[in-house]
């Protein structure tokens, strides 16, 4: 049962106004189309700030791999966030968006040492998650302060593909290798100014955060010159009515108390960092697609849309759920559909999903499409990537043009085979 903070009439009116706006954007920019709401991004950012208001020094570094459009990055710069980056290209995009090097943390995995050397030249905070790289870095750059990513061996995340803190994960240096870490630090005289962990995305239970953070706090006592502790992220968002989400207020209260006690015991106030991505942008995004065909078979009714997993891969890749609504006829009779794409592979967004009756030409809205949607898009089947639009202070802005045939050819080199 839905609980209304306002009357059902006002709630419906708000939805109708939102649907009308989205339909007008399709008329203006065509489909498929990604639309992001800056107000929702700011709302989610402030929820985290308020949740950890009892921490003296708090820094949120937006995990830009979730959505890296430069206009989105500028929103986070304006809000006061830093950036969490995983490639040197992300570092450069962040600096292009106006972030200072000291506002960017670089946490790569499995990259060549030359990429770390570029990061040193750019002056960003580096986070190392490999013993051999830690030793090499300490030998070459003992004066450059670095963070160490520790694997706490805690299973956290919505499924194994997005769980990165377990014992078989490629990420981080095992907590059981702490003595070896300390030996490398001592031998090279390198400067460790932070320690970091990230157990995974869509963590269901806040106890996972508490258990993993206690492991990290205990490890932190072995490093005497820390400036910050980075607890990663993984805050769960709701994908549908009644879905589980992270209780930020409860987590903030418990974790802030534990962190403040650690700082007291450590002897000075450190900065508590998080690197949220999905939590900040998922709900801000909507993906709009037109229904090309309605196809009824002996067992299913398919709604085939003018997009596919080349634009939104999460349902096929992670079995992720995206709520789908028919914004052309939101109040129609509910029927069951399998919503499928136009890619020449199995390309299913939803199976046997109850949606308001769909006709060819209707516009479907995929909700929670702000995180890991456009950023994971491709040109599979030689399809164009869609446009992106930002709603900011009551106006809509095109922040990425729809690709054209010329874009497909731009980097290809045609040779003469005669």
From TrEMBL:
Tell me the ranges covered by the Orn/DAP/Arg decarboxylase 2 N-terminal domain, including all copies. Answer: 41-282
Q: What EC number(s) is this enzyme filed under?
A: 4.1.1.20
Q: Which residues form the active site?
A: 344
Q: Quote the record's binding site residues for pyridoxal 5'-phosphate.
A: 234, 372
SUPFAM superfamilies, alphabetized = Alanine racemase C-terminal domain-like (SSF50621), PLP-binding barrel (SSF51419)
Names of the cofactor(s): pyridoxal 5'-phosphate
Nucleotidyltransferase recorded as keyword: no
Matching entries from Pfam families are given as: Orn_Arg_deC_N, Orn_DAP_Arg_deC
Q: Which UniProt keywords apply?
A: Amino-acid biosynthesis, Decarboxylase, Lyase, Lysine biosynthesis, Pyridoxal phosphate
* Catalytically driven reaction(s): meso-2,6-diaminopimelate + H(+) = L-lysine + CO2
Q: Which InterPro entries match?
A: Ala_racemase/Decarboxylase_C, DAP_deCOOHase_LysA, De-COase2_C, De-COase2_N, Orn/DAP/Arg_de-COase, PLP-binding_barrel
Q: Which residues bind substrate?
A: 314, 318, 345, 372
Q: Its Gene Ontology molecular function terms?
A: diaminopimelate decarboxylase activity; pyridoxal phosphate binding
Which pathway does this polypeptide act in?
A: Amino-acid biosynthesis; L-lysine biosynthesis via DAP pathway; L-lysine from DL-2,6-diaminopimelate: step 1/1
Where would I find the Orn/DAP/Arg decarboxylase 2 C-terminal domain in this sequence? 34-370
GO BP term (any one): lysine biosynthetic process via diaminopimelate
Q: Which residues carry this modification: N6-(pyridoxal phosphate)lysine?
A: 65
Question: What is stated as this protein's family in its record?
Answer: Belongs to the Orn/Lys/Arg decarboxylase class-II family. LysA subfamily.
How the protein assembles, per its UniProt entry?
Homodimer.
Tell me the function of this protein. Specifically catalyzes the decarboxylation of meso-diaminopimelate (meso-DAP) to L-lysine.
Q: What is this protein called?
A: Diaminopimelate decarboxylase
Q: Upper taxonomic classification of the species? A: Bacteria, Pseudomonadati, Bacteroidota, Bacteroidia, Bacteroidales
**Which gene does this sequence derive from?**
lysA
